[in-house]
Design brief:
Helices cover 36% and strands 33% of the residues. It has 111 residues and is of the alpha+beta class.
């Protein structure tokens, strides 16, 4: 039996007196990331016992709305790619990609 190796990803959130994020950073030593600043993060985990996803969605006060729109678009595209890798469902992946194109068009992200 092979020995399991663990890897750690750390998220740090500095909040104001109202618990609103002012600064976000993350580290992943195996990936060479050390205390890198971020303006937003979306984290989802699957709770198999309860058959539900749990999530943490954070963004800093100074995250510009135009950047948030791009962040969401890129996240949706990435989710489409991940869905394909996980399921090999080409038809639904194509549908998801069509939505991503529609999303970008409506937000005027693509010229």
């Amino acid at each position: 039996m092979s020995k399991l190796v663990t890897s750690e990803i750390t998220l740090r959130v500095a909040v104001d007196e109202n618990r609103v994020p002012e600064k976000l950073s993350w580290s992943a030593q195996d990936g060479g990331i050390n205390n890198e600043e971020a303006k937003a993060m979306l984290l989802s985990v699957w709770d198999s016992k309860n058959q539900e996803s749990l999530k943490i969605d954070l963004w800093t006060k100074d995250m510009p709305v135009d950047e948030m729109k791009v962040f969401f678009h890129q996240t949706l595209v990435s989710l489409s790619d991940t869905f394909m890798k996980a399921t090999q469902d080409e038809k639904m992946t194509a549908t998801m990609k069509d939505f991503c194109d529609y999303f970008a068009e409506k937000l005027e992200l693509k010229k």
